[in-house]
Amino acid sequence: MAHPITCSPFPNARKIYVEGKIHPISVAMREIHLSPTRLTNGTMEENAPVTIYDTSGPYTDENASIDIMKGLPRIREQWILDRKDVDILNGITSEYGKARLADSRLDELRFGYDHKPKVAKDGLEITQLYYAKQGIITPEMEYVAIRENQRIEQLETVPKEIALQHPGIVSEPILQKERSVRNSLETKLQQEEQLSRIISTIRRVNR
């Protein structure tokens, strides 16, 4: 039974894209819309949306056009070619790959594309670690940095909010909001610490 391909966003959320500052890249994220908070005086306070990590691909993008026979968009293809350090082979070179390609029983399972494999040019390295050692920030590096960052700069004012004193009795909604902000900050700080450790490791390797 065939199932239709859908591109609907998750409930109370929408797909957004954050643009790169170094390279012309767009990083997908999910923006979740929060319900208002009822304050002690009975009024409602609107909450800003929360941006989180998103790996759902085009399947939650209402503007995406999907053809499963062509596969997902090859986002890195042009990034790789622009570096001019790879050669494109004429076809599959492994014995296993050639045997599978010659097996006519698999024809009905094949997708409608013929992507050629790539190899590093003689004497060149094409790993992200190699580029990092050369001081090169690749589109892949910026993409991951933006994706993992998840708009952390928006939390710069959070410590001040947490530090605010409140008079006497505090309602549960306010306490819940403070706990939510504090937990969000702690999560971001943990991510920053992990990133700092990774950077320190790279620097030690470069020495």
Automatic annotation (TrEMBL):
Provide the E.C. number(s) assigned to this enzyme.
4.1.99.17
Question: Which molecular function terms from Gene Ontology are attached?
Answer: iron-sulfur cluster binding; phosphomethylpyrimidine synthase activity
The GO cellular component terms are:
cytosol
Q: InterPro entries this protein is in?
A: ThiC-associated_dom, ThiC/BzaA/B
Where's the ThiC-associated domain? 9-86
Q: Which UniProt keywords apply?
A: Lyase
What Pfam families does this protein map onto? ThiC-associated
List GO BP terms, alphabetically: thiamine biosynthetic process
Note whether Lyase occurs among the keywords.
yes
- The protein in question is named Phosphomethylpyrimidine synthase
Q: List the source organism.
A: Chryseobacterium carnipullorum
Per UniProt, what is the name of the gene that codes for the protein in this document? thiC_1
